[in-house]
Amino acid sequence: MISFHRLFFFFALLYPSFQDILDLDEEDTCYENNKPVFCLPKFENVVEGKKITASSTCGLKNKSRICLKKRNEYLKCDVCDSTDRTKQHPTDFLTDSDTPNKTCWISEALMTPPPHNVSIRIHFGKSFELTYISIVFCQDAPDSVALYKSMDYGQHWTPFQYYSSSCMDFYGVRPNQTITRDNEQEALCSPLKGGVSATYDTPTIAFSTLEHRPNSFNLDNSPVLQDWVTATDIKIIFDRLLQNNALASSYMTMHYAVSDLSIGGRCKCNGHADRCITDEFGRLKCVCKHNTEGRDCERCKPLYQDKPWARATKQNANECVRCNCNGHSNVCRFNKELYEWSGHTSGGICQDCKHNTAGRFCHYCKEKYYRDVTVKISHEQACKACDCHHYGSKGKVCNSANGQCPCKVGVIGRKCNLCATGYQQTRSKIVPCQRKISGLYN
Ligand SMILES: [Ca+2]
């Protein structure tokens, strides 16, 4: 029996970058000396505790006879009955620890001739970055196995890897093709000779997601491979029992049987979180750092849009940068042109400036308000209402720097609420101050 831990160390050795995570502890690893650094959730067997469904499981509908033929053993038959605890073979047995006895998920009996496809689907409930998928069979492996992945919770599926004794005939893929930098998102087909991998003592499939892909050691800088290893769901389709299986022609009691399924990977947080938690709605999400947010830390927080979001790398944590809104806004918008124009230093535009402020940084007063220079621009009272006199002023808009309203002839005062020397108040709304006519009554 191949354990998860053996696989873990096998892949940790295969990819040096995975060795880093062996040293993770409970500390916040996203900061070092208060500086943001690239961080990762722990490497784990991501199927543990996940929802696994199978298109076919023996004994669910009717009690049925199951016969398994293990290598170097005689055919062993038993009864599968979901109403009897000792005779069950549910999908839970794919992820149990297999102690003390090896437990197997077993499909319903397959009728000859083909097709024989039966699928297992694993729903992660969130994006994960996968390193390997390992399937340990209870008997000889099927003739063909296809692994598919979805990045959108099962709406679309793309091939991940094929295994078959006849890759071209069955999947239309030449066996053992070479992957170049131009086709790194292509699924390969590996010949499956008798369904047995030479590395293991039990029929096993071990698919390493990055193996043979040129950028596998440069994952940080390869968006294509970052996508390639990302999945929210995995589907495994078993197809066609061995053609040379002596049972094929005579028995109607053939089954797919898997004792262990493990998928190595980690919760996808784009280098901005070192753990994932279940939120109040029961959904998995990253505990985002570096001023990022989203279930995968895939965007900057609303006030941290001064630079474009980027995945953290070992060289640069790409922390999201706060916009300077002088305390008058909690939201800004990234503008690419401004960012380019600034020489990649600042591209944020503050939105919905409060306290009667306006401008890209909420740094001046909006129309009909003026700047009170006795307080700082960040002060809530930095902008005061013009409050121009309804009759004395020609308009409502004052000088934004000193608050002076545009007074009509003969009217003075910041608000235009006084008559100038030599003028007297009238009852007219149009001419509120009239020149005194001197000497008329002299
Ligand atoms: Ca098991």
Automatic annotation (TrEMBL):
Q: Where in the cell is it found?
A: Secreted
Give the superkingdom in one word: Eukaryota
Question: Which Pfam families does the protein's record reference?
Answer: EGF_laminin, EGF_LMN_ATRN, Laminin_N
Q: Which GO terms describe its biological process?
A: animal organ morphogenesis; dendrite development; motor neuron axon guidance; tissue development
What are the disulphide bonds in this sequence? C386-C398, C388-C405, C407-C416, C419-C433
Which region is the signal sequence?
A: 1-19
> Which SMART domains does this UniProt record tie to the protein?
EGF_Lam, LamNT
Which keywords annotate this record? Disulfide bond, Glycoprotein, Laminin EGF-like domain, Repeat, Secreted, Signal
Q: What is its main location?
A: secreted
Which PROSITE patterns would you find in this protein's record?
EGF_LAM_1, EGF_LAM_2, LAMININ_NTER
- InterPro entries, per this entry? Galactose-bd-like_sf (IPR008979), Laminin/Netrin_ECM (IPR050440), Laminin_N (IPR008211), LE_dom (IPR002049), LMN_ATRN_NET-like_EGF (IPR056863)
Do the record's keywords include Glycoprotein? yes
Stretches assigned to the Laminin EGF-like domain: 386-435
Question: Which part of the chain is the Laminin N-terminal domain?
Answer: 35-266
One cellular component term from this protein's GO annotations in UniProt: extracellular region
- Name of the protein this chain belongs to: DgyrCDS11979
